[in-house]
Write a structure and sequence with these properties.
Layout lengths: L1 H33 L2 H8 L3 E4 L18 E4 L3 H16 L5 H4 L8 E5 L5 E5 L5 H15 L10 H16 L3 H17 L4 E3 L2 E3 L3 H30 L2 H29 L3 H27 L18 H4 L1 H8 L20 H4 L3 H17 L10 H59 L2
Antiparallel strand pairs: 1-2, 3-4, 5-6
Helix pairs in contact: 1-8, 3-5, 3-6, 5-6, 8-15, 9-10, 9-15, 10-14, 14-15
């Protein structure tokens, strides 16, 4: 659920944020598209004033600066401000004052140009067109900066003239405006997600979006792969856990039989012995069922009506180590090796024939003990002597070791899953820092 739902929602939210940031970045780029075409052409065609310093005397000197020529605009800073005002007003008013502009006089104004001798030469500007009115406004501003000069009166008409030029460039007719709107709408449909202005469109960078999103997609794929691997490993533990559960049942049932047999041989009257015999017979039936289930699979009698009804796999055929301990083990299974039965003891052979031989012998001896007469049902009985000598040490401790095989296997699987998720946690923390510091930041 986390990998398929929560993480996908977070990645989708991250994608939405990236698209919003990319669109916000495009808004700032619309400044270049906001200026109408005629204004851009007029600004591009402005004459320049060349400051030419005589550098002939410096030709023979080492280290002289060969780049003594610079080009600057004819108008002062006020001219750039006027151009910006023209651009802003041209974007807001599209031909609203075209009628007023036609009534303004077109006054030629000289442009100051520096010659090679340092003197200023006057050169008349064109007397028609939008550029003439723009140049007239700049020239008026230049003359107004001298003492005694009259206040410029052509600024507003020139601005209106630029607006009129912009309107003329876009087309003053309503039919042309309608065609432009249709063109913009058609362009928007072709460039979905782009920002358009004046018939121009800025398309967002899909490469930037992919660059910011592919690490998250790769991380999500790795997360899903790790979750699938973890689920597979944990799901494969059902059979070992079922075998471990049944092995614990066998050990518990064997302990119950030891206790019940001890009660049966220590009772003083026959009534108590009969009660102990009945209990011992019932426990033996359960032990046989659970032991056969552990070795050969299936469901035992004790699992009927139990909430845990998962079938036990045949441990004798699934695990070779487990099978060898029951059928091929020839060593002493006691934890304290110095207490092992010595060669020549009556139970020496059976104690070194594997767990299955010892368990089958125990079940046989207990069935005989249940059928013995009251006189033979005592503490010195040979049936109970096998239980005390072999069953209490060799068989019981061997069953504990066999169950520990499933415990170790389960713990090993859990540790593998824990290691994978620990690596995932550490890698996620490191990659998050790297992604934030070196990938997202410009």
């Amino acid at each position: 659920v986390e990998a398929l739902v929560v993480q996908l929602l977070l990645i989708a939210f991250q994608f939405w944020l990236v698209r919003k940031v990319e669109r916000a970045r495009l808004v700032h780029m619309l400044v270049l598209l906001g200026l109408p075409g005629p204004i851009l052409r007029a600004m591009h065609a402005r004459p320049v004033r060349i400051l030419d310093n005589d550098s002939d005397d410096d030709d023979g000197e080492e280290g002289g600066d060969e780049d003594d020529k610079s080009a600057v605009g004819v108008a002062p800073a006020g001219g750039a401000a006027a151009a910006a005002a023209v651009a802003a007003k041209a974007g807001a008013e599209q031909g609203g004052q075209a009628g007023l502009l036609t009534q303004q006089p077109s006054l030629p104004a000289p442009v100051q140009r520096h010659g090679t001798d340092g003197t200023e030469e006057d050169e008349p500007l064109p007397t028609t067109g939008a550029f003439a009115k723009l140049a007239a406004a700049e020239a008026g501003a230049h003359r107004g900066s001298h003492p005694g000069a009259a206040a410029p009166s052509m600024v507003l008409p020139v601005v209106d003239a630029a607006v009129a030029a912009a309107a003329a460039g876009r087309g003053g007719g309503s039919g042309h405006k309608f065609a432009m709107k249709k063109k913009v709408k058609h362009q928007d449909s072709l460039t979905r997600g782009a920002l358009s202005f004046n018939g121009k469109a800025i398309i967002p960078s899909y490469l930037t979006t992919v660059k910011l999103m592919w690490p998250l997609g790769l991380w999500w794929a790795a997360l899903v792969a790790i979750y699938v691997l973890s689920y597979t490993q944990l799901n494969s533990m059902q059979e070992p856990l079922s075998s471990l559960n049944m092995a614990c049942h066998v050990i518990y049932r064997y302990s119950q039989i030891r206790t019940t047999a001890w009660v049966a041989v220590t009772q003083a009257n026959n009534v108590d012995k009969d009660i102990a015999r009945a209990e011992l017979r019932h426990e033996l039936d359960l032990l046989v069922s659970e032991y056969n289930t552990l070795m050969y699979g299936g469901l035992s009698l004790s699992q009927l009506g139990s909430p845990f009804t998962h079938e036990t796999p045949p441990a004798a055929f699934v695990s070779k180590t487990f099978s060898d301990k029951f059928f091929k083990e020839k060593d002493c299974l006691r934890w304290e090796q110095d207490t092992c039965l010595k060669e020549g003891h009556q139970y020496y052979e059976v104690s070194r024939s594997g767990l299955d031989a010892m368990m089958r012998r125990l079940i046989s001896e207990m069935n005989l003990l249940v059928e013995d007469s009251y006189v033979d049902l005592n503490y010195l009985s040979t049936r109970y002597d096998y239980m005390f000598t072999v069953g209490a040490r060799d068989l019981y401790e061997g069953l504990q070791d066999a169950a520990k095989l499933f415990v170790d296997y389960s713990i090993n699987r859990y540790n593998n899953v824990l290691l994978i998720h620990t690596i995932l946690l550490a890698a996620t923390a490191v990659l998050a820092v790297v992604y934030g510091l070196f990938w997202v930041r410009p």
